[in-house]
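TICKET: design request
STATUS: open
ATTACHED STRUCTURE:
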């Protein structure tokens, strides 16, 4: 009996232990769940508001748990931080440019106050403004410098998490990371997400990004078509507003203004979407290059095959973006493919993209083809791009060939060659070939190319005027388009005292004794610039206020009768209306022959001067970043040099300076 009881007891023990293990296992699972939820909640709480060390600790805790569910929080936080970082970089740069401009204004005021007592009252206000801007610059830089390492840490944390997962779970987590880049309705979120995909470098990420770029370009083409259909109505209404302002002393009925806003709303929404899509494309190019740089040989061959197939499409909408991606990939195997394309590519815009990408990677092995073939290429853009690329590469071997080309070139290319020579040598003999040859004969054997110098300011670069000169900015080009603001504020004095910011609610500063209006100053310098155009030069004049129009329907070949007619026209110009900068640039590209698309458009104009005294107040968009994105997109294949002049303290110095910097021009603020 006792034996039977003992046997039954022994047999029952494992069962009791099994029953006991169930709550123990459940308790462990619950504890793990609780730990994950607590770590994720702490990460989310600290990610956007904690100190850098707190964020880093919360990230490490969450990643160490090795739970695939953390990928959602990491992707969301990377998207937020990357988006804010992009904005912080723009904000820091814009604030720096605003500060630069206000410091110039303050210096001018102090000089003016020595001659004009009335200017002294503005000095204290301007000093306060400069002080506030310095604080804003410091804050913007601090935010930028805080977010940059945080995005790096987030990407590294996501990579560590993926490495800790099993292959099947890892694949699902990688798909989650890619989902927003592929599907999210907001192109801004997609731009941030594609950056993370590039950083993670999952197998196949490069091919996925190449496909996304193609699809994004298809979507962009649809938007461009939609914008074209609405823009005609916007232009028609802008013309009506201009005519009404001219007839009524600058006044426009509120009902007509409201109607204009309704008509342009759809076009504005399309332009905004295009800007965000362009930001995605830029991010995708960088992300694709990063992803391909991390791939093993086997995967890289697959990605390259897909990329080269996209590039081989003669009319592919994404061709230039894919070429840019290829030229940015680190690694000799990919550079070799890019150099092969450099030998065989026919499109000038594509060659310029390859030049820039390989030069940015410091690939000095392309010097030979640049000197032997591209400096003497039949297309002016290729010659100009080759000269700039050789300057970027700090090529001593290019100096003598550049001097030789200077002797036979003319127009804008001659200016570009001179700029490259000055960059490489530190000398500036302008177009005097004899002086360049003598210097090289005396100094060439022992000369060492110095590091690239910091860019000159617009005023420094314009100190020596030659050829066509407009407000001190010179060019040897004989294919020039002038874009001139004739809005109402151009009647204000060049030396404002009581209304420096062109406040429409205050009386404007009429020119006093010995002063001239902004329009008269623009007319005076424009007529001087026209004197630098030789007979046979190709040119036109685009004017803008609320509406935009050109002096002639087509480009004009300079001749004595044309010079006389244009002089009379310019002298009779009046100022009335608002400031349509977007419309002015749109019309300028039309007149110049910059058609957009994905191959070189060979524009009839290679240099544009844009002058305004204010900020954009009407047009499809008045947003600075959207205007910049439009100019970038439209000029990508035309490569027109754009110089900018801002009159008065009220002009958008950030917009004007960035247009010039991004398109090879100079900026002057007066």
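STATUS: resolved
RESOLUTION: sequence designed for all positions
ATTACHED SEQUENCE:
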């Amino acid at each position: 009996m006792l034996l039977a009881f003992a046997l039954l007891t022994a047999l029952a023990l494992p069962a009791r232990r099994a029953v006991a293990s169930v709550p123990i296992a459940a308790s462990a699972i619950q504890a793990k769940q609780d730990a994950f939820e607590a770590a994720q909640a702490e990460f989310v709480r600290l990610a956007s508001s904690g100190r850098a060390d707190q964020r880093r600790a919360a990230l490490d805790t969450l990643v160490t748990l090795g739970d695939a569910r953390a990928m959602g929080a990491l992707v969301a936080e990377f998207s937020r931080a990357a988006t804010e970082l992009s904005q912080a970089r723009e904000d820091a740069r814009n604030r720096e440019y605003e500060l630069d401009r206000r410091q110039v204004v303050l210096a001018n005021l102090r000089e003016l106050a020595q001659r004009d007592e009335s200017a002294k009252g503005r000095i204290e206000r301007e000093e306060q403004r400069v002080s506030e801007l310095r604080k804003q610059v410091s804050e913007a830089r601090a935010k930028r410098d805080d977010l940059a390492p945080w995005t790096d840490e987030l990407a590294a944390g996501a990579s560590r998490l993926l490495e800790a997962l099993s292959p099947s779970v890892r694949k699902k987590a990688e798909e989650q990371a890619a989902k927003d880049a592929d599907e999210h309705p907001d192109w801004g979120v997609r731009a941030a997400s594609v950056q993370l995909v590039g950083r993670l470098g999952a197998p196949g990420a490069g091919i996925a990004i190449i496909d996304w770029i193609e699809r994004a370009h298809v979507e962009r083409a649809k938007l461009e078509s939609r914008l074209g259909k609405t823009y005609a109505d916007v232009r028609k209404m802008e013309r009506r507003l201009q005519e009404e302002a001219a007839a009524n002393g600058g006044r426009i009925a509120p009902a007509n203004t409201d109607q204009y806003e309704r008509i342009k709303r759809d076009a504005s929404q399309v332009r905004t979407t295009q800007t965000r899509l362009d930001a995605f494309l830029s991010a995708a190019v960088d992300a694709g290059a990063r992803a391909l740089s991390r791939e093993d040989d086997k995967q890289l061959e697959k990605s390259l095959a897909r990329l080269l197939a996209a590039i081989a499409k003669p009319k592919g909408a994404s061709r230039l973006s894919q070429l840019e991606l290829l030229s940015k990939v680190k690694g000799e195997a990919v550079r070799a493919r890019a150099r092969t394309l450099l030998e065989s590519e026919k499109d000038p815009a594509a060659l310029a993209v390859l030049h820039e990408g390989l030069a940015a990677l410091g690939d000095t092995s392309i010097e030979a083809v640049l000197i032997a073939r591209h400096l003497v290429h039949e297309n002016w853009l290729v010659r100009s791009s080759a000269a700039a690329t050789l300057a970027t590469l700090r090529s001593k071997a290019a100096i003598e060939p550049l001097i030789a080309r200077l002797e036979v070139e003319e127009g804008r290319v001659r200016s570009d060659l001179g700029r490259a020579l000055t960059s490489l040598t530190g000398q500036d003999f302008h177009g005097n070939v004899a002086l360049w040859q003598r210097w090289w004969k005396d100094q060439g054997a022992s000369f060492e190319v110095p590091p690239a110098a910091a860019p000159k300011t617009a005023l420094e670069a314009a100190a020596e005027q030659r050829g066509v000169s407009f407000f001190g900015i010179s060019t040897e080009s004989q294919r020039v388009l002038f874009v001139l603001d004739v809005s109402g504020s151009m009647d204000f004095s060049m030396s404002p005292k009581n209304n420096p910011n062109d406040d429409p609610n205050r009386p404007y500063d009429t020119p006093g004794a010995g002063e001239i209006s902004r329009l008269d100053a623009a007319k005076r310098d424009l007529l001087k610039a026209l004197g630098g155009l030789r007979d046979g030069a190709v040119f036109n004049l685009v004017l803008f206020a609320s509406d935009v129009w050109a002096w002639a329907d087509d480009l004009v070949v300079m001749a004595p009768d044309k010079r006389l007619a244009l002089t009379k026209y310019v002298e009779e110009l009046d100022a009335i209306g608002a400031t349509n900068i977007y419309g002015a640039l749109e019309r300028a590209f039309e007149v110049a022959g910059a058609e957009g698309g994905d191959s070189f458009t060979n524009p009839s104009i290679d240099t544009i001067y844009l002058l305004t005294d204010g900020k954009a107040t009407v047009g499809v968009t008045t947003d600075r970043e959207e205007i910049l994105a439009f100019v970038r997109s439209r000029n990508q294949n035309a490569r027109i040099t754009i110089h900018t002049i801002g009159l008065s303290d009220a002009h958008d110095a950030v917009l004007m300076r960035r247009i010039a910097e991004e398109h090879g021009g100079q900026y002057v603020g007066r």
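CLOSING REMARK: Strands lie at 468-470, 473-475, 479-485, 538-544, 548-550, 556-557, 607-612, 641-646, 667-669. The radius of gyration is 31 Å.
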